[in-house]
């Protein structure tokens, strides 16, 4: 749904899709994970949200949560959706505070999440990935081209504004900032695979329809032959009845003539 000025509006379902994806990927630890979050949300919602719109809306939701503005948080949706939204916002608030404090103190290692948080994040991540994979299998490739065009600029702008949060592997000299190119290659391969799958399925559907048309043509041809045989049979029966009728008429005429001749003979004698 769009607002009057043409901007996309977030529904309660969209909020939950965004919060689940953020909880599953934890971009507070690595901002480059926003690319995966963007792809997941666009695929699940079917709406062409920009990366900036997702970040701004997440900040807005966390701000409402911090201010305890429950009226706006619960503006729509069921009680179960509201409870899940509250739980996810609490988890994301704790994650951001944890990783922000660690980045500020310049500690090399980040404190691991609690077992409960890890379990929740893992569960949400699995649900999000399964849902995205299922929709991809069904052919719902939502705005992949638009996403490929806008992702590079959005991720680059995000990375330039938050370089302090980018991590570098301790045992490698290759920085994490090289990951977007690998992700783009992987995503292009995924798109090519999906296009090949769609082309193959389209060709199979075409062949199936062609076979169905051929069968229908054969059925119609058989019906026509059957109808022609029936017509011939009716014509033969009609001709046979005509011959029988003519024979009966001739026989009656002959019988009448014979009776008249016999009566005439009786009168003469």
UniProtKB/TrEMBL annotation:
Composition bias type Basic and acidic residues, residue spans: 124-138
Superkingdom of the source species: Eukaryota
Keyword Coiled coil among UniProt keywords: yes
Region (Disordered): 100-141, 153-182
This protein's UniProt keywords: Coiled coil
Extent of Polar residues compositional bias: 101-122, 157-176
Coiled coil: 203-251
Keyword Coiled coil assigned: yes
Alphabetical list of PANTHER family matching this protein: HTH CENPB-TYPE DOMAIN-CONTAINING PROTEIN (PTHR37558:SF1)
Name recorded for this polypeptide: Uncharacterized protein
């Amino acid at each position: 749904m769009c607002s009057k000025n043409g901007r996309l509006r977030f529904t309660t379902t969209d909020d939950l899709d965004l919060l689940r994806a953020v909880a599953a990927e934890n971009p507070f630890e690595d901002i480059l994970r926003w690319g995966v979050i963007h792809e997941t949300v666009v695929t699940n919602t079917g709406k062409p949200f920009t990366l900036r719109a997702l970040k701004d809306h997440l900040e807005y939701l966390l701000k409402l949560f911090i201010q305890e503005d429950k009226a706006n948080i619960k503006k729509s949706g069921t009680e179960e959706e509201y409870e899940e939204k509250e739980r996810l916002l609490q988890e994301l608030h704790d994650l951001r505070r944890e990783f922000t404090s660690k980045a500020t103190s310049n500690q090399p290692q980040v404190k691991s999440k609690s077992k409960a948080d890890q379990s929740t994040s893992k569960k949400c991540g699995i649900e999000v990935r399964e849902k995205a994979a299922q929709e991809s299998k069904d052919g719902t490739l939502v705005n992949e081209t638009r996403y490929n065009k806008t992702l590079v600029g959005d991720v680059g702008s995000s990375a330039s504004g938050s370089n302090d949060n980018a991590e570098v592997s301790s045992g490698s000299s290759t920085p994490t900032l090289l990951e977007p190119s690998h992700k783009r290659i992987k995503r292009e391969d995924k798109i090519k695979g999906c296009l090949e799958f769609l082309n193959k399925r389209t060709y199979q559907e075409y062949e199936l329809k062609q076979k169905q048309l051929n069968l229908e043509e054969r059925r119609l041809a058989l019906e026509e032959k059957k109808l022609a045989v029936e017509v011939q049979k009716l014509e033969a029966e009609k001709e046979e009845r005509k011959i029988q009728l003519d024979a009966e008429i001739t026989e009656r005429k002959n019988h009448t003539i014979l009776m008249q001749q016999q009566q005439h003979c009786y009168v003469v004698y």
